[in-house]
Q: What sequence folds into this?
């Protein structure tokens, strides 16, 4: 793997991480669905991994990259702050703008509202997989194997409960096992698109590196706050969700410091 180009590493690494979404959804195919409490714990874990990855694998490297260009002073921090806000703003804008109403056509009333909520959740999971892929790609593009590996591992780990959450919510709306699993798997397959893009951009352009890293962090932070944490707190399992978040956070911190 050492001889692969950063672009190829970014693509393969993010593809493998994205494939974990399908692996995580597979209990649905076997008819073995973990309890809601277990799923909230696992999704809380995903939020913790994403939170730690945002800071330790993206924001801190973004600050380092900006400092190596601009010395200390206000410029590096300002660049990273602006890029984080741009990342948050971009996903918020996409969430508002992209049409998803048509998924609920043909149904009326509260049933349609629940189907719409499920599709909004799936939409958000899919969208945030682009910056996750971007993060993995940027990691490989900036620092080769050692930069990308902890991110690919951590992002892969947190994709599993996300895939399960998507597949289970579709089952709840009456989709059959095969379709629920396939849609969940597809949400993960957008990850290599971000991966190739991220690795390509940062290996071509060093000045873009802090911007790319911090933008990807902002996009992830939006989804953690807007979708994942609220989803884990909707059914009264806040304690388990927070426990999962804590474990995910320290595990990702450990992986990043140990492998990064
Ligand atoms: Zn995620």
A:
């Amino acid at each position: 793997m050492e001889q692969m180009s950063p672009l190829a590493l970014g693509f393969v690494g993010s593809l493998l991480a994205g494939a974990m979404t399908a692996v995580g959804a597979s209990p649905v195919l076997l008819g073995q669905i973990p309890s809601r409490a277990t799923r909230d714990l696992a999704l809380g874990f995903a939020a913790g991994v994403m939170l730690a990855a945002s800071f330790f694998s993206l924001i801190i490297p973004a600050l380092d990259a900006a400092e190596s260009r601009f010395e200390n002073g206000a410029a590096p921090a300002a660049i990273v702050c602006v890029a984080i806000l741009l990342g948050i703003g971009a996903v918020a804008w996409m969430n508002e703008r992209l049409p998803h109403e048509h998924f609920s056509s043909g149904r009326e009333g509260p049933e349609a509202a629940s189907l719409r909520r499920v599709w909004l959740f799936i939409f958000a999971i899919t969208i945030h997989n682009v910056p996750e892929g971007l993060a993995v790609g940027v990691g490989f593009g900036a620092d080769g194997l050692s930069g990308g590996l902890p991110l690919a591992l951590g992002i892969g780990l947190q994709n599993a409960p996300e895939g399960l959450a998507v597949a289970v919510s579709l089952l709840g709306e009456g989709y059959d096992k095969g379709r629920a699993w396939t849609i969940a798997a597809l949400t993960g397959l957008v990850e290599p698109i971000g991966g190739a893009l991220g690795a390509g951009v940062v290996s071509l352009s060093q000045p873009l590196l802090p911007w790319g890293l911090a933008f990807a962090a902002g996009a992830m932070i939006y989804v953690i706050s807007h979708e994942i944490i609220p989803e884990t707190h909707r059914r009264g399992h806040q304690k388990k969700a927070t426990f999962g978040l804590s474990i995910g956070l320290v595990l990702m911190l450990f992986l990043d410091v140990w492998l990064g």
Remarks:
- The chain has one domain: 6-259.
- The two ends are 16 Å apart (CA to CA).
- Residues 100-105 have pLDDT under 50 and may be disordered.
